[in-house]
Design goal:
Elements: E1 12-13, H1 30-39, E2 41-44, H2 50-66, E3 71-73, H3 74-77, E4 94-98, H4 105-111, H5 114-124, E5 129-131, E6 137-141, E7 149-152, E8 166-171, E9 182-184, H6 212-216, E10 219-220, E11 228-232, E12 237-239, E13 248-255, E14 273-275
Parallel strand pairs: 1-14
Antiparallel strand pairs: 2-11, 3-4, 4-6, 5-14, 6-13, 7-12, 8-11, 8-13, 9-10, 9-12
Bound molecules: 2-oxoglutaric acid.
């Protein structure tokens, strides 16, 4: 089996009320916003404390144990490293617990966490919306039967008015290249690709010379429990399989500006959305 090598419907629910006042200073600085605009990603260390991550892990382990649907199996994706079918060894290995938002109140509380909402409001403007059709999952990258996710942009199969969404990737433990941590290409969200740079599934090709300079500029995203990676839905990223003996857990949601709705009738419009709470006036910048 080949492996990918790491480079060196508008059913809005009512807004959920903000639960904590937070601290007005807990926002992106102007430099951080400029960095996000330039690089297409940004890490905030310790945005979720141990109470959040412990509560989430408890729910996740229980849902994994019960194989509580909806789930995506490694065998479903047919990526390098994944079992070829559910009948093969490891064939029932879960890759993602889907519909994270409705699995437990802890996930709703997380997306309403004021330091998170405030930052998303800075990046996307007031009235941030969370589409439920994309991400909205717990990535459970398990040892032995996990897979390589090749270079891609998340927006490739999404249908919104503009390709403007921000992903929020919360690490529930350490993430680094060996356990399948992400790599990203800084600034790639601002580049238009030619069709020749992509394969038929819209993965960014590693086998063509014209892509090498960009791929050589990739950087690993190293995270600890509670750290959050914000990244633009056009940012190129990849991750290998988990080459350790510990499962890696990450909670991932995507968010859009209020004026960037999904295209009606598309897959992006199919699962409804959640409107995030407005940031209270006194805590705005
Ligand atoms: O953890 C991984 O393998 C990458 C997942 C990913 O890139 C995605 O879900 O878009």
């Amino acid at each position: 089996m080949s492996s990918v090598s790491a480079p060196d419907n508008q059913n809005h629910t009512q807004p959920v009320p903000i639960r904590s006042a937070g601290h007005p200073a807990d926002t992106f600085t102007a430099d951080e916003i400029a960095q996000f605009e330039r690089d297409g990603f940004l890490i905030v260390r310790g945005l979720a404390d141990a109470d959040w991550t412990t509560r989430m892990l408890q729910v996740i382990r229980e849902h994994l144990e019960r194989e509580l649907p909806p789930v995506e199996l490694e065998a479903d994706v047919h990526y390098p490293g994944s079992p070829e079918s559910i009948d093969q060894p490891g064939g029932r290995t879960i890759r993602r617990l889907k519909q994270a938002h409705s699995r437990d109140i802890v996930f709703t509380e997380w997306i309403c966490h004021l330091p998170l909402v405030r930052r998303l409001t800075q990046l996307l403007g007031p009235g941030v919306v969370m589409p439920l059709a994309h991400h909205n999952c717990v990535m459970t990258k398990q040892p032995h039967h996990s897979s390589d996710t090749r270079w891609h942009r998340d927006i490739r199969y999404w249908n919104f008015t503009r390709p403007e969404l921000v992903n929020v990737w919360l690490a529930l433990g350490n993430e680094y290249p060996k356990n399948g941590g992400l790599f990203v290409v800084p600034g790639s969200h601002r580049i238009e690709f030619k069709p020749s740079q992509l394969d038929k599934d819209l993965f960014f090709r590693e086998d063509v010379a014209e892509n090498q300079t960009l791929l050589n500029s990739a950087v690993p995203v190293e995270l600890s429990a509670g750290d959050v990676l914000f990244f633009h839905a056009r940012t190129l990223h990849m991750a290998t399989r988990n080459n350790t003996d510990q499962t890696k857990f990450s909670v991932v949601f995507t968010f859009r500006p209020a004026d960037n709705p999904p295209i009606p009738e598309s897959r992006s419009a199919a699962a409804g959305e959640v409107v995030l709470p407005e940031v209270p006036d006194e805590t705005r910048l």
